[in-house]
Amino acid sequence: MKTILLTVAVSLGVAFILGLLLGLFKKIFAVKVDPKIQAIQDVLSGGNCGGCGFAGCAAFAAAVVKGEAEPNGCVAGGPSVAEKVAQIMGVSVSAKRLVTILACKGTNSCASPRGTYNGIKTCAAAAMSVNGTKDCSFGCIGFGDCVEACGFDGIFMGKDGIPVVDYSKCVGCGKCAKACPKHLFSIINAETKGSVALCSNRSDNKPSIKKNCSVGCIKCGICEKKCPEKCLTVTNGIPVVDYSKCTSCGICISSCPDKVLDLIQNVVNI
Fold it and tell me: pLDDT grade, residue 28 (50/70/90)?
């Protein structure tokens, strides 16, 4: 009995000493965490989407405090979160809302299919194996890799075979753009106004373009010629707009024979 009691006493004594040592070591080697980091984390969206360029919200918060990231870097949170982060840091920022635009209108009824695809049903796999499932090798493949990548339910597959952006949910995090093997998505300021080309076909083979997709840009150059502000140029096969000059007059849009162009404010519509 004495042996048992002695063993218990020794064990308790050792445990007590180890506890004191651990507490001492914790104080000695403790890493001080700036309270601003936790404060910033508390106001972030918590989506860990990576749109800020960091691994997650915690990494972004730490980077802001260290001066390695701007307070308005949380694209998922938008202007409201940017203002809160700026207040915590004691600075002022100009925040903007970002959204994504799909530069393709090649629905199932507009773009001809290349044939029956029997491979893995992902855009990445189809692009790697047969360069897409449509005769237009530049167009949307339609298996929804972008939908799977979006962490905000901001994109869904439409009934016509191409993804549709829900601008009430899209935060412009850029995950859809990274997931698309055809690079059809672009991230823009939601307040941008002006004309945009909803086509990514850069081929100069006009008959082939028209045959493969009824809404593909045939590089006729009418939009460039008709633009009164001279702010639109066909560059590498795609109409490119200088938004510092564009007045949203819509002349290029009405002049386009294949209705490739549209106003950003009409597309985003928020």
Answer: low
pTM above 0.90? no
Structure tokens at 213: 């997709």
pLDDT tens digits for range 95-122? 788 999 999 999 999 999 988 999 999 9
